[in-house]
Amino acid sequence: MPDHKTSTAETPISKLNRRERRREETTQKLFHAALQLFAERGYANTTVEDITEAADVGKGTFFNYFPSKEHILLTLAQVQRGKYERARDALQQKNASARKIMRALYHELPERLIGGPMLVRSLLSVFLSSDQVRQTMTARLAEARELLVPVIEHGQRNGELRTDRKPQEIALAFQQTLFGTVLLWTLMMTPDDAEQCLDKAFDNFWYGIASRPDGNRRSR
Q1: Average of per-residue pLDDT values in the chain
Q2: Domain ranges of the chain
Q3: Which residues face 215 on adjacent strands?
Q4: What's the pLDDT at 12?
Q5: What is the 3-class SS of the chain, one letter each residue?
Q6: What is the predicted pLDDT for the residue at 219?
Q7: CA-to-CA distance for 74 and 66, rounded, in angstroms?
Q8: Band (55; pLDDT cuts 50, 70, 90)
């Protein structure tokens, strides 16, 4: 899938000029309408016409913003990348805590997904069935892990995190446990259980990566 620059759907509209603001507003309307329909009907059962009707724009307008329906997923990936970037930037705060930053990110990343199990299932089906989408998303996830590395390195320096694992390994484990948690939630839980499910999963993840008074040794 060729790379295509679209809005991240989270650009501060107040910082744009009038023309840019109108374009951003339309992009966001299409993006949010698409995610809502994916959650209700599934990705495969949602057409471009469905999206434009829900967003109250002309059908042809869609292709001025997204070359295809699949590019909605690229915009979602850009939104997620922005969350990793904000997590990294949070290191600039006084007394920054790796645990606090990572816990907030653990909750923030799936916030668009936990309102609808159908959305998670439909997106997973696209990732599994489309080589182009899967390759693109794999690359985006790798980029996101690199953004998380400085947070992990900070935690290792200040004694929060064990140092016998590379930051890249911990970043991968972060994504693995979060993906697994969200997937299991879609199969077993209800929306009301989502926050509690994320809390427990993060606490278990943190136990595995946190430093210990007796050092970093772990039984095998």
Answers
A1: 85
A2: 13-65, 71-209
A3: 212
A4: 53
A5: CCCCCCCCCCCCHHHCCHHHHHHHHHHHHHHHHHHHHHHHHCCCCCCHHHHHHHHCCCHHHHHHHCCCCCHHHHHHHHHHHHHHHHHHHHHHCCCCCHHHHHHHHHHHCCCCCCCCHHHHHHHHHHHHHCHHHHHHHHHHHHHHHHHHHHHHHHHHHCCCECCCCCHHHHHHHHHHHHHHHHHHHHHHCCHHHHHHHHHHHHHHHHHHHECECCECCCCC
A6: 41
A7: 10
A8: very high
188 or 182, which is more confident: 182
- Contact, 83 vs 108, CB < 8 A? yes
At 194 the pLDDT is 81
Using 50, 70 and 90 to split pLDDT, how confident is the model at 42? confident
Q: Under the phi-then-psi rule, with left for phi > 0, alpha for psi from -120 to 50, and beta for the rest, what region is 159?
A: left
Provide the token pair at 68. Answer: 């295809």
CATH 1.20.58.100 assigned to domain 71-209? The reply is no
Which residues face 210 on adjacent strands? 161
Q: What is the rounded (10 degree) CA torsion for 131, 140, 112, 134?
A: 10
From the list 45, 194, 52, the residue with the least C-alpha distance to 116 is 194
CATH class of 13-65: mainly alpha
Mean pLDDT score, 111-134: 76
pLDDT tens for residues 158-169?
999 999 999 999
